[in-house]
Structures are given as C-alpha cells and as structure tokens.
C-alpha cells in the first residue's frame, strides 16, 4: 500500500525512531514503529486488522471518512484513503479491499 503523509514533518517524524521517542516517549514510539511496519506491509486497507492490538476502525462525526489504528492509549494514528476517487461499494461504504493508498494525517489523542 502506498503511504503518503499530510506534511513532510510528519513523514520525517514517523520515519525516525529518535524523533518518535522525543515526541511520544519510548514506549509509544515502539508501538508507532510497529504500526508503521504493519501499514507498510499491507497491500490494502482491509489488510490492517480490525482487532487488537492494531484495531483499524472508522471514525465518525467531523472525522467521517478517516480511520484510526491504535498506538499506545490514548494515541491513535489517523489516516484516510488517498485513492482518487476513493473506491466505494454499491451501498456507498468504502471498499477497503480496493484502498491501496493512504494519507497519514497525524498521531493524536482525539478523545480530548
């Protein structure tokens, strides 16, 4: 799966263990690095497990159209399909099997 980033700073941070540790702490940095490996190895968004520990899940409200995967609680890696157009099923839902490009929006605690 192609992985794009909202900003070059985000790409740099998520690609550097030392920057991840500085920004999120050692334990969370390790989890984020594992999740990035999972994303890198996936062929499509459906390949990202919906069960723990990764727990890919669709967001709602003002974040509708975005997905999150768990990092160390309460942080989540926020992403969205970057395919243009976003592949959809007949019922209008996103066809996760055909999403082969994502854009990472950030790592955050969106519960606050």
Description:
- This protein is α+β, with helices and mostly antiparallel strands and 112 residues long.
- The chain has helices spanning 8-14, 17-24, 26-41; strands at 2-5, 57-58, 67-70, 76-81, 101-108.
- It has a single domain, classed as RelE-like (YaeB-like fold), CATH 3.30.2310.
- Strand 3 (67-70) and strand 4 form a beta hairpin.
- Helix 2 crosses helix 3.
- The radius of gyration is 14 Å and the shape is globular.
- The model has no long low-confidence stretch (mean pLDDT 96).
Total number of helical segments?
3
Classification by helices and strands = alpha+beta
CATH topology: YaeB-like fold
Q: Going across the biggest sheet, name each strand in turn.
A: 1-5-4-3-2
Main beta sheet, described?
A: 5 strands, mixed
The count of strands amounts to 5
How would you name the oligomeric state of the polypeptide chains in this document? single chain
The whole-number mean of residue pLDDT values reads: 96
Instruction: Report the uncertain regions.
Output: none
CATH class: Alpha Beta
The total domain count is 1
| Terminal residue distance | 30 Å
Tell me the name of the CATH homologous superfamily: RelE-like
Query: In one word, what is the shape?
Result: globular
CATH architecture: 2-Layer Sandwich
Beta percentage is: 15-25%
**H and E order:** EHHHEEEE
The share of residues in helices is 25-40%
